[in-house]
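Lecture notes, part 5. Sequence design as translation. It can be helpful to think of inverse folding as translation between two languages: the language of shapes and the language of residues. The source text, in structure tokens, appears below.
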């Protein structure tokens, strides 16, 4: 059973991800994934997991993210392309702005350039 803290963080990630330009929810392989156009930018792990489980593409902050004990390169060869998988306990959750930064970096890495530019600061 997921803790309230984990559930809130997961819901925040999903809601923020869906608020990004042309983002939508899909269910490949029975899991939730957020996509922009036809490309996944975050895989959301099982809702009933005891940790916050998700995978994102982090071309700029991959090395920093992988320094965390609760992060590892994503399987199936995706780790070679900068994908990082997290299994974060409630006691080790980063602040929401860190989670949002990872989510937005992943979005910008896979979104078409015109959509990715919409997230760039003015």
């Amino acid at each position: 059973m997921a803790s309230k803290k984990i559930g809130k963080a997961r819901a925040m990630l999903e809601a923020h991800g869906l608020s990004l330009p042309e983002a939508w929810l899909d269910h490949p392989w029975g899991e939730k994934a957020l996509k922009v156009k036809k490309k996944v930018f975050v895989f959301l792990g099982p809702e009933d997991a005891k940790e916050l489980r998700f995978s994102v593409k982090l071309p700029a902050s991959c090395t920093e993210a992988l320094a965390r004990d609760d992060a590892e390169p994503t399987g199936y060869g995706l780790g070679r392309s900068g994908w990082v998988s997290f299994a974060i306990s409630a006691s080790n959750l980063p602040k929401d702005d860190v989670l949002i930064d990872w989510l937005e970096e992943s979005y910008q890495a896979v979104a078409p350039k015109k959509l990715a530019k919409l997230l760039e600061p003015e």
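The translated text above is only one of many valid answers, since several sequences can fold into similar shapes. The helical segments are 4-19, 62-66, 96-110, 113-116.
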